[in-house]
Design goal:
Residues 1-46, 50-54 and 78-84 have low confidence and may be disordered. The chain has helices at residues 4-8, 18-33, 35-40, 89-98, 115-119, 137-146, 162-174, 195-201, 212-216, 239-246, 256-264, 267-276, 298-309, 313-328; strands at residues 63-68, 101-106, 124-126, 152-156, 178-181, 207-210, 250-253, 281-282.
């Protein structure tokens, strides 16, 4: 099946540079080596799952993963057979256990049947998404909404084109959130700095942003042409930061390498940013991996990086669990 992240998010475990790894390893070492700091602000016992307490290197909270790409086994031509590609549902479930995810949003899940959804009612929703090209993409999205999808995405931001307007009209009329991937370097017509005009045209639509330009543009000096994963201290005042402050209907997820990099590149800024926008940020994986742990899984990296920030407990509850639970009506325990 279509798997938008393979082509869009440019994530691959082999894409992790030595420097990325060293950054992560340093964070893990710091977190592990400062028990007294952790002890001052102990994580509460997890209410579900098997999360260890005060674990600098792993999950500290039950969480909702709002950025999942997962094919249903029913489309693989039988469990374990090739054809659907990617992880099996069982591998996905094991991955989510490892990061202590108790629910999530299945992007592009359309009207497909998933065993893990049947077994866990109230913990997952499916989003509607069309294939990459060809056919009537808008009709495919609408068919999935009629089939029970509770949001739209993931779709790449392609600029103000008829398809974009069609799915935004659907988000408005069906009253469902819409999740966009921003990467202008690949689609020069989709100018990131113009995106706010669309937010203003759809004030009742709930937008969720993600990916390279979204996180790069927390920095005022971000260059979309330079793209990728900028490093070093953030110069405050970036477009993403301004828009989150300005538009109540704009939200985001922390998924993928872009989210992890944004947390790690400047922890002081990240702590401030997440605290200021604590009601609008949700945890996401965007993982295609099967490990769910350090050092190659983005989710494992993200958990270490977030632990390192030592965010206030109420902020952690929001970004891990309750913001998503409220937006999607999902169980929290
Ligand atoms: Zn994705
Ligand atoms: Zn992973």
């Amino acid at each position: 099946m279509h798997h938008i992240c393979t082509s869009n998010c440019q994530h691959s475990q082999s894409g992790m540079t030595r420097r990325d790894f060293l950054t992560v390893a340093s964070l893990a070492a710091v977190a592990a080596g400062v028990p007294s700091m952790l002890a001052q602000d102990p994580a509460p016992p997890a209410k579900a799952g098997k999360a260890p307490v005060s674990n600098g290197g792993g999950p500290t909270h039950p969480l909702i993963d709002i950025h999942v790409h997962q094919s249903p086994d029913s489309m693989r031509g039988g469990s374990g057979k090739k054809g659907g590609g990617g992880r099996t549902e069982a591998q996905f479930v094991a991955h989510q256990k490892a990061v202590n995810a108790i629910g999530g949003v299945i992007l592009g899940g359309n009207a497909y049947e998933y065993e893990f959804m049947k077994e866990n009612p109230g913990r997952y929703v499916r989003f509607a998404a069309a294939g990459p090209a060809g056919g009537d993409r808008a009709a495919a999205v609408e068919a999935a909404l009629k089939g029970g999808a509770r949001g739209i995405g993931e779709h790449r931001w392609e600029g103000d084109i008829p398809f974009t307007r069609a799915i935004l009209d659907m988000a408005r009329d069906y009253k469902v959130p819409i999740l966009f991937h921003f990467q202008e370097a690949l689609y020069p017509a989709a100018v990131y700095s113009e995106f706010y005009k669309t937010i203003e045209k759809y004030p009742t639509v709930t937008f969720i942003g993600h990916a390279i330009d979204w996180w790069g543009a927390v920095d005022k000096n971000y260059s979309v042409k330079g793209g990728t994963y900028p490093r070093g201290r953030v110069t405050p005042g970036g477009l993403t930061d301004q828009w989150l402050a300005r538009y109540p209907n704009l939200h985001c997820d922390l998924s993928a390498q872009s989210g992890s990099t944004a947390i790690m590149r400047d922890p002081d800024f990240a702590k401030d940013f997440i605290t200021r926008h604590q009601d609008k940020i949700m945890w996401g994986s965007d993982c295609t991996c099967t490990t769910g742990g350090m050092p190659t899984c983005w989710s494992g990296i993200k958990l270490v990086a977030l632990n390192f920030l030592q965010l206030p407990e109420d902020v952690q509850q929001k970004i891990y669990l309750t913001n998503a639970a409220k937006m999607f009506g999902l169980k929290t325990a």
